[in-house]
Amino acid sequence: MSRSPRKHVSGLIRRRFCSGLACATLLWFAACASASNSQKSSSNDSIITRDEIENSHQPTLFDVVRALRPNWLRTAPSAVRSDQETGVSVYLDAQRAGGIDVLRQLPSSAATSLRFYGASEAQSRFGLGNLHGVIQVVSPHG
Questions:
Q1: Do both 61 and 128 map to the same domain?
Q2: How does DSSP classify residue 108?
Q3: Total domain count for the chain?
Q4: Cα separation of 56 and 52, whole Å?
Q5: Distance CA 134, CA 126 (A)
Q6: Do 55 and 122 fall into the same domain?
Q7: Do 79 and 95 belong together in one domain?
Q8: Do both 104 and 61 map to the same domain?
Q9: Angle formed at CA 61 by CA 110 and CA 88, multiple of 5 degrees
Q10: Which residues, in sequence order, are CB contacts of 81 under 8 Å at separation 6+?
Q11: Model confidence over 59-88: pLDDT tens digits?
Q12: What are phi and psi of 3, to 5 degrees?
């Protein structure tokens, strides 16, 4: 016995509908999982908030960065070598304060937040000479 053309088309439509429904369901679950993961990680990789600073219970800003975002302290070798190349620069608000050692001298209470700028963003925001990026200390006054 052969199927009637109507039943064949109906079965084909049902299979495609179920297949489409399955894909839509998978996409929905993936979107939910992605949103859930982004909500779980409350921290932005380029910012350390005041709450994070306080909850770290670290004495200096260097210790805060080392504990929460150690990758900020790493310098990548650059193709351009300069006698003035010092590594990651530290800015207190909008003023250049020096290198990483400045963070060792500042208590954790000296900042409302810390922000890391990669090399290209640092050079466009703060000027040339920031080949390894910038850690900006945002003070309560700034």
A1: yes
A2: G
A3: 2
A4: 6
A5: 8
A6: yes
A7: yes
A8: yes
A9: 115
A10: none
A11: 999 999 999 999 999 876 655 555 455 689
A12: -75, 155
- Could you tell me if 16 and 52 lie in one domain? no
Nearest to 133 by CA among 85, 88, 76: 88
d(CA 27, CA 36): 14
Residue with tokens 């219970």: 57
AA letter at 68: L
3-state secondary structure 24-86: HHHHHHHHHHHHHHHHHCCCCCCEECHHHHHHHCCCEHHHHHHHHCHHHHCCCCCCCCCCCCC
Q: Based on the domain organization, do 122 and 54 belong to the same domain?
A: yes
| pLDDT, position 106 | 97
Under a CB-based contact definition with an 8 Å cutoff, are residues 55 and 106 in contact? no
The per-residue pLDDT for range 87-118, each reduced to its tens digit, is 899 999 999 999 999 999 999 999 999 999 99
**Other Cβ atoms closer than 10 A to 58:** 17
Nearest residue to 43 (alpha-carbon basis) of 74, 72, 68: 68
Residue 74 pLDDT: 86
The structure tokens listed for 91 are 């800015």
pTM for this one? Answer: 0.66
